[in-house]
Write a structure and sequence with these properties.
The protein is built from 38 helices and 8 strands. By secondary structure, the chain is mainly alpha-helical. Among the domains are: 151 residues, P-loop containing nucleotide triphosphate hydrolases (Rossmann fold), CATH 3.40.50; 97 residues, no CATH class; 80 residues, Winged helix-like DNA-binding domain superfamily/Winged helix DNA-binding domain (Arc Repressor Mutant, subunit A, Orthogonal Bundle); 135 residues; 59 residues, Arc Repressor Mutant, subunit A (Orthogonal Bundle). The longest helix has 22 residues. InterPro entries: AAA_22 (IPR049945), HTH_77 (IPR058852), P-loop_NTPase (IPR027417), Sig_transdc_resp-reg_C-effctor (IPR016032), TPR-like_helical_dom_sf (IPR011990), Tscrpt_reg_LuxR_C (IPR000792), WH-like_DNA-bd_sf (IPR036388).
Length: 775
């Protein structure tokens, strides 16, 4: 059986409305990307840099083997989180203690992708440093950045994004049909039709519409903000009010105004057209980062002039005035302020002297949110709470940053960061969780229960990264403080982290002692989640010591606790290790089904670490009787481990080494490597489907030789076989023509050929060995 080509990744948001014009600019950006690895789109706020970058990325998605990815930086306030934000945008769950930039480089090193860095201007120095480092280390990476100024990196190509073409209304009178082809007019007309169905540019209104677009300097955001006014007034009234406002701003001068001033004037006008309460809500909403839902708006922004029961109507009003963007988010609706509009609202909030109070209310809302999530985590709503926290990640960062910068807030920050303990782990954000805890713990040293819990959690995250020395120091301090305070729950957690340390370091007797102490401590504290968590690994330690009967009883008890609560996270991890115990006892069929059930439970969390662990276990289980399948699974597992920036957990290494050696022996070295390579080429979704038995077999027949070409060279060889010239190949793959020529030369040398016809014939002979290039 053969494998289909990996799906092209295109992690770009869907366009909420039509994309108008920019044909010349799109072509120019593509041309620049063909010759340069870093292209920065520069221009004032509202000129359309982001939409242009996203459109180019979407158009080029098939030209980048590993896809097009977006890192949105507008809501990021801490430069130190830049690399982590990019890492998360690329869906890398960094679980190591290595420098995060090194992990990012290692993940990207042999990949070929386009990364869009959106809104770099407020993090310019850090963006420049990171971008330059990545470009030097990752030859297959291209970056398309948007910023209000260039990054200043060697090799950077910049393109100033112009405003949309506007009609010349002072010359001969064009027809309505010709005006409708002008980009600024088209945009105005399409956005006007959204609020006034049936609106068209006609012979009667064409001059008015043209003057509106000219008055707005062709700025897309300004045109969109103005067009929505046609819901209430005519085009002629709109033009009159634009003239009045802009004449006021420029002391009567009718000369062209700076674009930023024009946009500011439009936002001023949008603000003026809002009711007093809508303006107040607009300003208060600016404390949110990354969006919000109606519940958040009601809790944070009501009171002091805004009755809670009026928030929904005010939100509807702001959506109607294009101040708030409405976005579907799974089963709920979320709202987002465009960054330019958010900055304007923050200025108004600051000018009113309300910023500190609103930041505190936002902090309180985040505190309440994570407290409710913590209480509900061990239950049937676990997945929905996890998704909710993921959606609010930007807001959680903002709240924690407030706790670090506002006087007297450290204790609240420790509470929030500690309440997020399972979120940091489930989201793969170990490094970020440790970062917040490190900074908060360093900001104060009061001997409180919050500090004891934070120290224990920080040690736990460090142990999961195999960073044992600092973990031991934090654990000792946490134990001393909890003993002094008589905090039995923290002491039980300290015992759990000590057991985890023993397990990962293969000290199984220590693990049994410490996990046993943790189980009893959590039982005494009536904490079933703690009992299940500790018992899962207590059973694992017994299993590794050969105590199969004890392990079996404890695994079943742990599953019973989880099933009684309809809980999925701990149940999935228990099934993972229980499946390994079943396999060790010889019940491979039951073990395989147990691992697959664990994967089913993990998929809603996008728990890539847990899924990788299950795929790894399935490879062990296949090594004896289905060695080709094992080789593919080992390859898929390796790709997953690479994405975490960390090696396989220590206590699993022996199983891995034994099973890999067995599969190699069964297949022979060449066939094993062939299957392994196929596994590395599986997309994540394909790897899961294959592990679940939902996809056709992908291993090559034993004995087929691996290709001497790299993946990129094989891709180019296919294009040569299609009769494409070097120039056409360069255009198709968005590379320089000289780069394409170099690749073709390398292919000829590697294969010992002297003509392109020989390459074409060779490609035909390889058949399915070459991965198909997406159309």
């Amino acid at each position: 059986m053969t494998m289909t080509a990996p799906n092209v990744s295109c992690r770009l948001p869907a366009e909420l409305n039509s994309f108008v014009g920019r044909r010349h600019e799109i072509a120019e950006v593509k041309r620049l990307l063909a010759d340069a690895r870093l292209v920065t789109l520069v221009g004032a706020g509202g000129v359309g840099k982001t939409r242009l970058a996203l459109r180019v990325g979407f158009d080029l998605r098939r030209n980048f083997r590993d896809g097009v990815w977006l890192a949105e930086l507008a809501a990021l306030e801490s430069p130190e989180l830049l690399v982590q934000t990019v890492t998360e945008s690329l869906e890398i769950q960094d679980r190591s203690v290595r420098p995060s930039l090194d992990v990012l480089i290692d993940h990207l090193r042999d990949r070929q992708l386009l990364l869009i860095l959106d809104n770099c201007e407020h993090l310019l120095d850090e963006c420049a440093r990171v971008t330059e480092t990545l470009m030097r280390a990752v030859p297959g990476l291209q970056i398309l950045a948007t910023s209000r100024q260039s990054l200043g990196v060697v090799g950077e190509q910049t393109m100033a994004v112009p405003t949309l073409p506007i009609p010349d209304v002072d010359g001969s009178r064009p027809s309505a049909e010709s005006l409708r082809q002008v980009d600024a007019i088209r945009l105005f007309a399409e956005r006007a039709q959204a609020v006034l169905p049936g609106f068209e540019v006609t012979e009667d209104n064409q001059e008015t519409v043209a003057r509106i677009c000219r008055r707005l300097d062709g700025i897309p955001l300004a045109i969109e903000l103005a067009a929505v006014r046609l819901r209430a007034i005519s085009a002629e009234q709109l033009l009159d009010r634009l003239d009045d406002r802009f004449r006021l701003l420029t002391a009567g001068a009718r000369t062209a105004m700076p674009r930023q001033q024009t946009l500011r004037a439009l936002i001023d006008w949008s603000y003026a057209l809002c009711t007093e309460r809508e303006r107040l809500l607009w300003a208060r909403l600016s404390v949110f980062s990354g969006g919000l839902d109606l519940e958040a708006a009601e809790q944070v922004c009501s009171g002091d002039g805004i009755p809670a029961d009026e928030v929904v109507d005010l939100v509807v009003g702001l959506v109607g005035k294009s101040v708030l963007a409405r976005e579907e988010h799974q089963s709920t609706v979320r709202y987002r302020l465009l960054e330019t509009i958010r900055q304007y609202g923050r200025e108004r909030l600051r000018a009113a002297g309300e910023e500190p109070a609103l930041k505190a209310r936002h902090r309180d809302w985040c505190d309440d949110l994570v407290s409710r999530a913590q209480q509900a985590w061990f239950g049937p709503d676990q997945v929905s709470w996890f998704m909710r926290l993921r959606a609010e990640h930007g807001n959680l960062r903002t709240a924690l940053d407030h706790c670090l910068t506002a006087p007297g807030e450290v204790e609240r920050g420790l509470d929030i960061a500690t309440a997020l303990r399972f979120y940091w782990i489930a989201a793969g954000s170990l490094r970020e969780g440790r970062g917040w805890l490190d900074r908060l713990l360093a900001a104060g040293d009061e001997p409180t229960a919050a500090r004891a819990g934070a120290l224990c959690l920080n040690a736990r995250l460090a142990v999961l990264q195999s960073d044992f020395a600092p973990a031991a120091a934090m654990l000792d301090e946490s134990r001393r403080l909890a003993t002094r305070l008589g905090d039995a729950r923290v002491l039980a957690n300290v015992a759990y982290v000590s057991g985890l340390t023993g397990l990962i370091r293969c000290d199984y007797p220590l693990a049994v002692d410490m996990f046993g102490e943790a189980v009893e401590g959590h039982r005494a504290a009536d904490a079933p989640m703690g009992v299940a968590n500790a018992m899962m690994y207590l059973a694992t330690a017994h299993s590794l010591l050969g105590h199969s009967d004890v392990a079996d009883v404890q695994y079943k008890e742990c599953l019973a606790i989880c099933e009684a609560r309809k809980e999925h996270w701990f149940r999935s991890y228990t099934l993972w290790v229980y499946g390994i115990e079943m396999w060790r006892r010889g019940d491979t069929a039951a073990a395989v089904e147990t691992e697959r059930e664990a994967i089913r439970l993990k998929r809603p969390f996008d728990d890539r670490l847990g899924i990788a662990q299950c795929i790894e276990a399935l490879a062990w289980m296949a090594a004896d009787d289905a060695a080709e399948r094992a080789a593919v699974l080992f390859g898929a597992s390796q790709e997953s481990w690479r994405s975490f920036g960390a090696p396989l957990l220590g206590y699993l290494t022996d199983y891995h080494d034994t099973a890999e050696a067995l599969a190699r022996e069964r297949l022979g070295g060449r066939a094993y490597e062939s299957g392994f390579r196929r596994g590395t080429e599986l997309a994540p979704a394909e790897a899961i489907a294959y592990a679940m038995g939902e996809a056709c077999e992908v291993a090559e027949p034993a004995g087929r030789a691996a290709s001497p070409l790299t993946r990129r060279e094989m891709e180019i060889a296919q294009l040569v076989a299609q009769g494409m010239t070097n120039k056409a190949i360069a255009a198709s793959l968005v590379i320089a023509q000289r780069t394409a020529e170099g690749h073709v030369e390398h292919i000829l040398n590697k294969l010992g050929f002297n003509s392109r016809a020989q390459i074409a014939a060779w490609v035909g002979e390889q058949g399915e060995l070459l991965p198909r290039r997406s159309p």
